[in-house]
Amino acid sequence: MRQRLRASEAVLILLAVAIGGAAGLLSVVQGMIARTIQHLLFDLPSGQRLSATPAIPLLALLALPLGGVVLALFSWFTKARTRRMVDAVEANALHGGRMSRSDSLVISGQTIISNGFGASVGLEAAYAQLGGVVASIAGGWFRLRRADLRILVGAGTGAAIAGAFGAPLAGAFYAFEIVIGAYTPAAIAPVAAASLSGVLVAQALGAQPYLVHATVAEQVQTHHYLIYAGLGAVTAAFGILLMRAVAGVEALTRRMPVRTSWRPIVGGLLLIPLAWLTPQILSAGHGALHIDLEYGVPLTILAAILIMKSAASVISLGFGFRGGLFFASLFLGSLLGQLYAGGLGWIAGQGLVDRENAALVGMAALAVAVVGGPMTMAMLVLEATHDFSLAGATIAASLVSSTIVRETFGYSFSTWRLHLRGETIKSARDVGWVRMLTAGRMMRKVERPTPARITVAEFRRLFPLGSTSRVVLVDEQDRYAGIVQTASAFAEGVASTDAIGTLAIHQDEVLSPDADIKSVMAAFDAAGADEMAIVAGGGNVLGIVSESHARRRYAEELDKSQREMFGEA
User: pTM value?
Assistant: First the structure.
């Protein structure tokens, strides 16, 4: 039955619909839990967003360090600090979509605690994590192929985001750009179906979407594209600064004489004065974004909020609260856009672009700089305004922002954090197969290496011309001693009484069994060798691999990956 199901594209789409519905449900539940915690801790009126609260009593702000305590206890109880947890982007890039359900629950719990107690982080990481793990579990049960499982994980995460924002197009493009890493014909139908399913389930449950409903006050003219391109450059610089600030604060906290688990308590204490000045820095900032767009807040106040919200996000993430910068970057981008429009108007003596339009474009452009996904954010603006001209301007600004970040920084926030951990991936594009194609998997085993001490005459007797092209040698301790080309033992001028080890080559050029295909090919290029030995840590010879075989295997796997991507496998 599983084989029949795996071969059917229609079944994959139906499975994506079910997973999308589950992802939408989980998004609603997680958001409800976090908001309930906020209402209880901060005594919020019904329907009130934490960041939209006019003022919060100083005593209630003690919930911030209390959240650090709860997070520390939760992390200790779940042993979260002792293991490395994999999110959906890393799972799709390196592990073929396989995710851990226990780790995903821990990530979700940490994010809900952080957001619920008021830390300046969003819930989108939790939404995407549980949406992805539901897909991973279902795909594992059906034993889906690697490519199909990756598509399904993308569909689950996209559906979770779509359900939270009430934006199926943005959710679908989030899956393509952020989690799958490519637009492919095989992925379009499952991802779109899952996103629609997630939105329908969330709406049926009465969830209030995060999407900002806005009306375009000014039609976008052709020359506005150049102005918004400048905004894209500004947001790119600000986004890079924000990401580097988070990494810098994390590095600083590691040098503090405070245990890792207890650092969120210190972060919570640092957030109290900022939250006392303005509650807009608390949580992700949904309510604050609506207020600042609707009421025409003065630019000086917007600038102060921009600085304080940025500082709050950096402190929250740098001191160990769990969450992401997805919605925080949307909020900060809206502030930056308004400041940009107001600043240009002040310089020119007249308004050059509408302030609310600039807020929406800046919102998307900064999110692209931090999170990635230019089409994701453009679709978010389109679904918020239903205006194609502003969506076009958003695409222009987003592409400028994305290009500058790629050229000067090279990472989105999620992949930057992986880079700090030692990974080299820059997107969710599937590179896991490259790491799986190791020298150990490609080698030809060498059962009995030849001792380097035997004479050339004995070597000629053991390996006559035509029997083999190369022979691996070992020393008296059975450690690798080089490779001998069989023909070289029969060359003129070679004394038959000499030890065969005198003819050995590549004594220092070896490969470890876990070296991936990229390292293998780089080693061949550096050594100028046709074949190289695979040697274990103690110097024992495991096998031998040729350059031609390694390149052929790489070409085969690359072709297989491309065919799977386009649904031709």
Answer: 0.82
